[in-house]
Amino acid sequence: MFPRKLTNFIVAALCLCIVFASVCPVAHAQKKTAPVEATPPPLKEDFKFGEVDLEVLEQVDLLDVRFERDGLVLADEAVNAYLRRIGKSLVPRGLELEKVQWRFRALRDPQPNAFALPNGSIYVTTGLMSLIDNESQLAAILAHELTHVMRRHTYLHNRSNRKKFLTMNVMQAVGAYAPLSVVGAVITVVTTVAPFIMMATIYGYSRDLEREADIKGIDMMISAEYPPEEMVNVMKLLDKDIEGENIRLFYNDHPSLDERIKYLSSYLGSRADTVTPQMELNRERALYFRNMESVMRHNVQLAVNSRRTRSAVYFAQRLVDFRADSENLFWLAESYRALGPRTPLLTEKELTNSAMKDAAKKREKRTFEEEERDLLATPAGKDNWQKHQQLAEETYQLALKADNPVPVAHRGLGMLYEKLERRTDAVAEYEKYLELSPAATDRERIQRRIEALKEKLK
Amino acid sequence: MSARSFVLMFVLVALLPVTGLHQAKAQFLHPKIQSKETTIRRVVVLPAKVNVVRDSMKGPEGMAAESDELSSRVEAMVTEVLSKKKNVATLPAAGASADEQQKYNVADFQTKFDTLLPNIMKKRSDVKKGRFTMGDEVLNLNLEKGTDAVVFIRGEGKKLSGGKTAFTLLVGGTPAYLRLQIGIVDARNGEVLLYTDPIFPGDPTTAVDRLRKALEKGFKKLPEVKAQ
């Protein structure tokens, strides 16, 4: 009896040791990370590549190829060159990092996001590029991502995760063979709780790395003579949750945007010597919009296609505010048509965490068309629909009256009239579109629509 | 408990997830296919997106090269099974020579399928009611004349390291597997005509025969086209 109890006791003690030994260094490390001293290039000079890191590198190199092959990278050389120019201006001159080749590319995705691969590939989505106001904000995003690469965050995170996963698995194995006794119960409790603690430390470490990238990003902006307060403004823009997607989960790999705004502002308080005058920012904004107009249009199309209709209206309106030419007006009209019975802005109630979670669940249950049908059955939905269809029609007409009218506005009107069951008008608009764009890629689709409408008109 | 019954119980527990995986497969046909109003004779298979990870004691590791290789294999095998078992011909999709706009069209349509997939997964049996559609945007793919349907292939799998295999046997956990999600969409109006999700246990990167068998079972209900 005695030796068995002793063994159980030793196993339980070992379990506790493993849990605390693997958690404590991390907890300690959390306090040590994200130093706020202004050190020029945020390099991880003591980093040595191991076999595991080389495996990660191989994987991410293939990821680059996949993005390109799958048509996810925006093939707009002017835009990619613009990103490259800003990115390179942030990288300290003459800096050569082992196994890093800087590449800056736009990703065709309407969701605002950016990420860095450890091989030096930095991707900014068209959604994020459309959300921001000026080049300095784009520099803030790139500086954040550059820090991830320079500080070798992906490799460090991977190494740390591997240790924690191994601990979790060992704990699970011990827990599975816990004896039926009080000590066994203790082992079971410890091994059940341990994975949650481990997960918390994995996400905690990730948040620390993000914090460090934010802070070091500010330093890089200052070195490259970009106004650093724009980093805070980017966070504020990201906080503008147009689609109601910023759901706070139990585990989060990024600090909350509120928290980021707070610590960046406080860090900036001690660093910013001057705040850029508004006039200068306005000038920068106009220049940025000129450079990004094609990306922003492309992004509105992606947003409409992926049913991010509120974002589509928001971005298209920004484009029209910048320049009310035929193409920008067309995109605004398309966005209103796609918005249909939805409200253009979410209410405060709809933006609460529980409401956003409910909405996400509903999106899984109902298709976009079913959601539209359900909304149209409500008086508010019907009102919105009428209002937005009218706005869409007026804006299409404006697009056709503007200089160099885009033929696609006729197609848009055709689709609008088809939905409103104004079939003769729809056929006329479709035919006008095909007449003006004989080589349109969607010719077959429109021809079939014309045929179907004519069939109904008989 | 005697040593023999312990071993027996251990084997049963270890095999439970494997047998469970074998049974978990389903296929749902649109009423137009069931009533033979629509017949699928010629299809275009869009590039498959199959991802496998290697699960080790130190957590999951990516297998990008193997995933690409497996994607190509699954794509080829779907073509083979449809042709040999159902007499369905596969027409070439827009190749590498496609211009940027065409590449975007395919990418956007693939994304559209990914957006619809959670809705289908939530209630797969509704494919039988003809509830799901991707719209007539499918015509923007400008497929070859006479194409009846477009095939979308998604998949996820897991390969276990030696250590993790032993761990799974001793402690339990999901064994190595490959799960596919295949949707066949009408090339004229975007209606989802068939949805099937074959699944099989075993190393997804090497189990070629199991993959073929799983696909054959997955397309079992699809009516065979009479050879002309």
Fold and architecture overview:
The complex is a heterodimer of chains A (458) and B (228). Chain A is mostly helical and 458 residues long. Helices cover 70% and strands 3% of the residues of chain A. Chain A has 2 domains: 2-271, no CATH class; 309-406, no CATH class. Chain A has helices at 2-32, 51-69, 77-90, 126-131, 135-150, 153-176, 182-223, 229-238, 257-271, 278-305, 309-322, 326-339, 353-365, 368-376, 379-401, 408-419, 423-436, 443-457, and strands at residues 103-107, 114-116, 121-125. In chain A, strand 2 and strand 3 form a beta hairpin. In chain A, helix 10 packs across helix 11 (309-322). The termini of chain A are far apart. The longest helix of chain B is centred in the N-terminal third of the chain and has 23 residues, at 64-86. The radius of gyration of chain B is 19 Å and the shape is globular. Classes of the chains: A mainly alpha (458), B alpha/beta (228). At the A-B interface, helix 2, helix 6, helix 13 and helix 18 of A face strand 4, helix 3, helix 4 and helix 5 of B.
In brief:
The complex is a heterodimer of chains A (458) and B (228). Chain A is an all-alpha fold and 458 residues long.
Percent of sequence in beta strands of chain B:
15-25%
Q: What percentage of residues of chain B falls in helices of 4 or more residues? A: 40-55%
Pick out the low-confidence regions of chain A: 14-38
Question: Can you count the helices of chain B?
Answer: 6
Distance between the termini of chain A: 94 Å
Keywords for this entry:
heterodimer; A: 458 residues; mainly alpha; 2 domains; three-stranded mixed sheet; 70% helix; B: 228 residues; alpha/beta; nine-stranded mixed sheet; 23% strand; globular
